[in-house]
UniProtKB/TrEMBL annotation, chains A, B:
It comes from Mariprofundus ferrinatatus. Keywords: DNA-binding, Transcription, Transcription regulation. It holds the Pfam family TetR_N. This is Transcriptional regulator, TetR family. SUPFAM superfamilies: Homeodomain-like. One of its GO terms (molecular function) is DNA-binding transcription factor activity.
Amino acid sequence: MQRREKRELREREIIEKSIALLSQRGFLDLRMADIASETKYSMGTIYSHFESKEDLLVACALTLVLEHRIVFNAIADQPVSAIEKIITTALCSWQISMRHPDLIEIDNLSLMPSVWRRATKQRANELNQLHVELAGMFLGIVVEAIETSLSGYEQLDRNQVEQLASHLTHGMWGLCVGLSSTAQSGYASTLCPDGADESDRYFYTNYSNFLKGYGWQEENPEAVFARCRRMAQQCIDQTTWFSDARQGPQS
Amino acid sequence: MQRREKRELREREIIEKSIALLSQRGFLDLRMADIASETKYSMGTIYSHFESKEDLLVACALTLVLEHRIVFNAIADQPVSAIEKIITTALCSWQISMRHPDLIEIDNLSLMPSVWRRATKQRANELNQLHVELAGMFLGIVVEAIETSLSGYEQLDRNQVEQLASHLTHGMWGLCVGLSSTAQSGYASTLCPDGADESDRYFYTNYSNFLKGYGWQEENPEAVFARCRRMAQQCIDQTTWFSDARQGPQS
């Protein structure tokens, strides 16, 4: 095995074990020494891959965002309309965050300035580039949805459509991140201790109204969401970390 | 001074210095030993107040959510319509998170299960109760807005109006949390390095469409947002930590 290949394999192993540790113990008690002891590598080896805990956390997030890309590609390949792809994407994000809050925390931590600003520039940049790629894919789908399924934009020129699509793209992302964060709070858990149905309802009402505000005029939005929910499940099952089976690398 | 009073003062001092430390150094490197050295209290004293870093973090969040309550009460007292109070609340949350991302990180961390589940029950519960109180205040305003400014709900009975108001309340909270988290990401910062105007535009488009989807029919939503923005500033200025002047306890 080449030296470089060996290094990459080792890095992957450290990341996978770190995700598993984070998921068991939370991030506030994460110590590089625990990672060393778990992986049996020396502290020097760990630090030769990751300069800081922040750097390691961004690397973990990167691994998980690559899983989101698998979901995303699976959605893009579905033989359905652009608006259904948008809804399926939102449903995937929701279902993943409700089932794997431990993993989504890692994603959300990597968005925080006190984390990504302290990671190495190269690692932070890799994560940004991956987000740029995903946002670009999504933007294409949104432009198609504006042209075919959203009303009120007939007068817009190409630039204006793209700007609107960019706002919708980032609004969707924000809504996914925010609805799942607040749904995982202690407050939500006190309010509906075993309320998966109620949570789904809350997700549906807010998402369908968000799209309605952007001009989605659909007589039976619930039926569309129900159809997309089945598709979302199939797309999630194609991943390693998010799949229900979770034959994941950590086991 | 009574013993109890002394204890409370000391607890407050530890919390305020911890917020300042978190804001300077981030949370991954937070060590109880740093808090002890900063406050000149022994580790035993620190631990007699906070069982764990998670407990301390929830206590810090509690202090900041009390500041949100000040903002909130100031908004509730404004002589404006319910829908304008809703928009002003969203604008306050947005402006605070854009100016004080370090503080909002603490709020967002406290929503994560790996944090609040590891805090003491009492502290986690205090935070939940405060969120219950704020959500209840907001819900009353939303019910009024549904009755006076949102269209399409004339057929709903009281229970249905309250359920809708609850979804809107939590959707608003989620949208605030999510839009500000994603706007602070490295990706957003790469995309618009000095784009405060562009960020404001992104916030406005997503918020106004969210409310439009809930039935807000307003001919000139931009003018309403502009009016509410000025009001938001005045309400924020009534706090210690979020005010621009920030004569805050940490200085």
